Amino acid sequence: MTIRTNILVTGATSGLGREIALQLAARGESVIASGRRENRLAQLKAQENIQTLKLDLTVSDEITRVCASIPPLSGIILNAGITVSDPFISGDIETDSALIQTNVVANLHLIRGLLPKLKTPSGRIFIIASLGGLTPVPYQSVYAGTKAFMINFALSLREELKHENIDVSVFAPGGIRTEMTDIPSMKSLENQLAPAADIAKAAIAAYDKMPAMSVPGFQNKIVAAFSKILPRSFMASQAERIYRKARND
Ligand SMILES: NC(=O)c1ccc[n+]([C@@H]2O[C@H](COP(=O)([O-])OP(=O)(O)OC[C@H]3O[C@@H](n4cnc5c(N)ncnc54)[C@H](OP(=O)(O)O)[C@@H]3O)[C@@H](O)[C@H]2O)c1
How far apart are CA 128 and CA 179, in angstroms? Predict the structure, then answer.
């Protein structure tokens, strides 16, 4: 294993991002862990090999400032993300926009701004998408749209950036037990959620190899395989039944 310097991990204050940051740091990588919550950042800063960066991905100026001031990086792990688990009809455009800003626009902004800071050859851009980007997710429709965007974007960008000696890889996990899924509508599906530490381990294994796309876990791999064979409309109607039932349980 090669120890790399300065890997930026966004969304490192909880869930998957926190586990990725801690596991990378534990094996000796120097990590720049970002998020908004200062108490969580302070806890991370107390760990060996972790520096922290307060960054709100909904504030465009902050992203620009960080891109200009951050030291050279060996890799970027774009993990921060949010969802809204409600019928689309009960939402509003402000919430939709914040979701798209956090899950999509901020990532594009960071990639554009940080490309000059990425060491070449072998600079790495690792994007955390979701199985929900491969299959429709009724009641998280906007979220599923953002993740589908990031998967197609990542696979396209990978082919462009190989000519710049920069590697791009996208990771599409299924359900994980984190703050994101600690919500009433997921309660009855709780036992199907994977521990964040296990998915972080799989993410780091993928980060080491940088395949075009990876899906951790046997069951998720099956869903991903079905998503290539079955009509999306069928997958959507099956998912709608499961999530409607979970919401009513
Ligand atoms: N949980 C799942 O079932 C699941 C499944 C597939 C994919 N994923 C993906 O995995 C990634 C991590 O999700 P998670 O489950 O670990 O979620 P989580 O525990 O809710 O963590 C989300 C992270 O994103 C950060 N974040 C949110 N809004 C932000 C903003 N405006 N600016 C900066 N940071 C922000 C949060 O930090 P602050 O609040 O401190 O800013 C937090 O560190 C996401 O991209 C998610 O879509 C999750």
Answer: 16
